[in-house]
Amino acid sequence: MHLQPSRKTLTHAATGVLLMLMSLSAMAACEVQISAPDGLSFDLKELSVERSCGTVKLTFTHTGKLAKNIMGHNWVLSKAADLTGIATDGQKAGLDNDYVKPGDTRVLAFTKIIGGGESTSINFSLEGLRESEYTYFCSFPGHWAIMKGLLKIN
Ligand code: CU1
């Protein structure tokens, strides 16, 4: 006997796969991963998220080996125009404050400073981030001038 799946069954299966793919892509845009080695660069110069996410989960990994007081990195989000001010004040705040001035309202989101082999995650809200582009950078002294990228909110 020759078994043939009905057209209806096939349609249901296709719809299921489509829904699964859609939810996967939605998840991918709401959860982002970025890393940095024992050098002054992120692996990604650009990150994209969907505005509809509401909240974004960011995981930042230091793929190097050096300690955080030597080659520490963090991920700081701000308007491009605020970068230098945040970094300058962050340097004064020191490693104990993750090179971010406590209560700095120009900082839209940030991770702690991590060293080689470490990883950290944060959740941040897109509410109030009305621009379509923001800058992210590492506020470790000497890193922020070149260690940066672009966050796009679609
Ligand atoms: Cu850094």
Written account of the structure:
The chain has 154 residues and is α/β, with parallel strands linked by helices. It has one domain (29-153): Immunoglobulin-like (Sandwich). Helix content is 25%, strand content 27%. The protein contains three helices and eight strands. The strands form two sheets. It has a five-stranded mixed beta sheet with strand order 2-8-7-4-5. The longest helix has 24 residues, at 7-30. The model has no long low-confidence stretch (mean pLDDT 90). Bound molecules: copper (I) ion. Residues 73, 138, 140, 143, 147 line the site of copper (I) ion. Copper (I) ion is lined by residues 73, 138, 140, 143, 147.
Key attributes of the depicted protein:
single chain, about 150 residues, 3-stranded mixed sheet, 3 helices, about 25% strand, globular, binds copper (I) ion
Give the arrangement of secondary structure elements:
Layout: H1 7-30, E1 31-36, E2 46-49, E3 55-62, H2 68-71, E4 76-78, H3 83-93, E5 109-110, E6 119-125, E7 133-137, E8 148-153
Parallel strand pairs: 1-3, 2-8
Antiparallel strand pairs: 3-6, 4-5, 4-7, 7-8
The structure holds copper (I) ion.
Summarize the model shown.
With 154 residues, the chain is α/β, with parallel strands linked by helices. It has helices at 7-30, 68-71, 83-93, and strands at 31-36, 46-49, 55-62, 76-78, 109-110, 119-125, 133-137, 148-153.
